[in-house]
Amino acid sequence: MTSFVETTHDGHVSTLTINRPDKLNALSQEVLSDLGSAIEALAAKDDIRAVVITGTGKAFVAGADIAAMKEMTEAEGREFGALGHRVFAAIENLHCPVIAAVNGFALGGGCELALACDFIFASSKARFGQPEVNLGIIPGFGGTQRLPRRVGSAAARELIYTGKMIGAEEALRLGLANAVFEPDALLGAAAATAADIAAKGPLAVAAAKRLIRDGVDHPLPDANRLEQIAFGEAFKTDDQSEGMGAFLEKRAPTFKGA
Ligand code: COA
Question: When you count CB atoms within 10 A of the terminal residue's CB, does the N or C end of the chain come out lower?
């Protein structure tokens, strides 16, 4: 059976492409399950050090599948939301950074998917929004929580209450997107940044991701204590002696992730 999510590998970098262009890559239960399986497969691969997620056609993801949701009961809605939360948490918890390469519409669940990634590179044609209130529902895959954490409470409230779409430059201004590229340059830029990250000490990058992710849920003194523990732990790795040795010997390091 073909998957709605295609995985390709290039060295230590994997790219996941959501492939349901006739429905603008809308997240049905099947698409979400395929995405979950693809993430699970990457989680088992220590040699993958950075991931890019993108979409086929004119959308990144135009949201959760409205046709599939139309007749859902309360229990089914809750279950569908739980599936989205599980898959997006798996992205957030993946051992390595994930870059959302937003090639077009990132609406509703699409914007929430991008928010579960570590950061967003946007095409100049990208459009972001949480339009759920237009449909009589709320963001259900983490939007009410991750959007305010990313762009601040006031901007998130405006986007969620109005359901309006914003362009790439506005997303950049809000700090939702890290950078904007011409459409043809987007994937190359995301792949180059992913390769750049993949060349760093993978245990160090993984620890940094974990600390940044978990830190927001702790008071600052506790979060700083977690950093101190992880900083100490870095000194028992081969990567630390390789990285510092290479600097002192004026050569490029070769990290093994050990
Ligand atoms: N769920 C299910 N199907 C969707 C979808 C979604 N979220 N978004 C788009 N589609 C489908 C359309 O129904 C259409 O299917 P059809 O050709 O069988 O009629 C196809 O994708 C193409 O979409 P279309 O609306 O014709 O494209 P457009 O370029 O005119 O408009 C959008 C693009 C993104 C503005 C528009 O599709 C849209 O508003 N989508 C819904 C966005 C949304 O509310 N997302 C949050 C859901 S919780």
Answer: N
